[in-house]
Structures are given as C-alpha cells and as structure tokens.
Amino acid sequence: MISRPDRDENPELVKLERVPCPLCESHSYYRILEGRDLLHGLPGKFEIQKCSQCELVFTNPRPTLESIDYYYPSHYTPHRTAHCSENISAPGGSQSRFRSALSRLGWFLYCNLDRKHSYVPISNRHLLFRGRTGVILDIGAGSGEFLNCMRTAGWSVAGIETSDNAVRFARERYGIELFQGKIEEASFEEHSFDAITMWWSLEHVHAPNDVLRASIRLLKPGGMIVVGVPNFAGIESKLFGSRCFGLDVPRHLLHFTPHTLKKMLQHNGFNVHKIYFDIDSMVIRESLRYVLREKQMNPDIMDNIFAVGACFVLGIVFAKLRRSGMMVFVAKRA
Ligand SMILES: [Zn+2]
C-alpha cells in the first residue's frame, strides 16, 4: 500500500491497470458508462465495461491493488459507522433511530404482506440467521458492527478486513480482533465455518473468483455464504446512471446484476438458494443527493421527513418489483 502522506498529496502515484473480465477472463468487452468518484470527489474518470461473453459489468481500467488505498480516505463511511439496529442509538442520533424505526416497520410490513420474504433490510441483516448459531466469518468486516450483532446472538465470530482504520475501530469499540489482510493470507482451518458473509465487499475485490474459491474451502459441508452487493440491474441504476450511489467508482470494481452474481457463485462451486432485494432506500436517497449537488441545489433536503418517507415507499416498491438497488444472495456449497 502507498503510505498515507504520499497517497494524500500525490494522486499521480495511483496506477491504473486494464484487465480481462474478472469472471470469465474474456478480453472481449465494451464500454457502457463512465463515472467519477462522487462520494469523496477524488480525481479520475473511470470506464465501466460489459463483458461480451458473460455480461459481467466491471470498472476497467481500474486502480491496481497497490494503489486502490488512495480511494479509501480515513473518513470512508463503512470503515467508521455502525448500521445494525442494536447499535443504532450511538452514532447517528435521532435521525438514525428514525430510519431504524422505518426499517423495522418495513420488515414487519413485508413479513406480513409477502410470505416469500424476498426482502432483508440492511439494519436487520442479522435476522437472516435468526434461530441458528455456529461459527461465522465476515469478509470485509468493516468496523465490525455486524459481527458484534452476531456475537450477541450467540455466534462465534471471525472477520477479515484490509483497512487499518476499520480494524482499529472494531477492536476499540467492540473488542473484536479482525484479521487484517486478504482471505488467502488468513490461517483459518478448512471447513471450519457454518456461514461466511460478504456485506458490500465482493464488489470491491480485484480477484473475486479467488475470494469465492477460498471461501468454499473454509465452509463446513452444508455451510452457507451470504453475499450482499449493489444491483446494477436495479431501477436506481437505470434512473441515475453514472450518478447512481451504488456505482461508487473506483472503489466498486464489479457491478453485479442478479444474472452475473449467480453466474459467478455457480462458477466457484455454489448453488444459489435465495435472492433477497433490500428495501432500504439509501441508494435512492443518496443518488438524488448527487443529482441535487450537481444542479447546485441543497442536497440536505433529502433529510427532510417527507423526502425520507417518499424514498422509503419507493424502496418498498422497487424491492417488490425485485429491482431495488441492493440485493442479497444466499448460496450453499454445491
Ligand atoms: Zn466475462
């Protein structure tokens, strides 16, 4: 990794690499979009390509593994904040509690209106494991809040994270010691986990096939993997294009659709059992914030109670159409 002082002062040190399709390794792809870093405003334009063979959409060229750290400044949100409903009272104050309450209301409505339960809210993702315990590994554990929820629910927990800040946060706030590095470097015993989770992390990795192959070796027979990623086929993506919050270039190297994520999981030895679509309206809200900012309007109007409520309803509608901006796959070893 480039050291932080050099990284902050010299974006020229970022190296880009042009790669074949990260799923099928085809060199045949075509440009469908171009994006910028709208989250942190860091320099660079990034092309989004679609593979002609398997249809995977990916950022190409992309920052190399050695220089991608430049695009994760110390205030990068997933490395610092807590999302789980158990922890929601501390960092976000009344607004987070309000959103958590909306999320719980959505969960209640959905579970009572739709028996297929094709929805899981981000803030309640631990409920996917309700009634079960075991040993769980969270890859890309961020600040450790999900593992803290799972530990509270009786699970033995382990996590992997590359960010210094996130590892420190997890240790200081939750007393959880994450392995810092790549999954291939960790010394976990084979077939030792009942579940492996990847919450909004697979889209960040340079070699997704390697990560999934390593994961399958670590799972017990019958073990499950849960993968949550933005949905490039979601309505938000169609509406907002390069301004879609879920695109998040260049941190997101992969832009999955239900079709391509299923293909990647199957390619690496998993059978998909269930696909959930998240009703959390964050992608809608934050994409609209980007649009307002671009039009030099006040993006804070998205915090208005009516805007939050409208986005909440849209989130439910998009999820019911199975076209929301976030999706969660549950798969098992084939
Ligand atoms: Zn491909």
Helix amount:
25-40%
Mean pLDDT: 85
Structural class by helix and strand composition: alpha/beta
Content of β-strand: 15-25%
The third-level CATH topology of one domain is: Rossmann fold
Number of strands: 13
Major sheet attributes = 7 strands, mixed
Sequence of strands across the biggest β-sheet: 8-7-6-9-10-13-12
Order of secondary-structure elements: HEEEEEHEHEHEEHEHEHEHHE
Q: Kindly provide the name of the CATH class of one domain.
A: Alpha Beta
The CATH superfamily name of one domain is Vaccinia Virus protein VP39
Question: Which residues form runs of ≥5 with pLDDT under 50?
Answer: 1-7, 80-93
- Supply the number of helical segments: 9
Tell me which ligands are bound. Answer: zinc ion
**Tell me, what's the shape?**
globular
Q: What is the CATH architecture descriptor of one domain?
A: 3-Layer(aba) Sandwich
CA-atom Rg in angstroms: 19 Å
N- to C-terminal distance = 36 Å
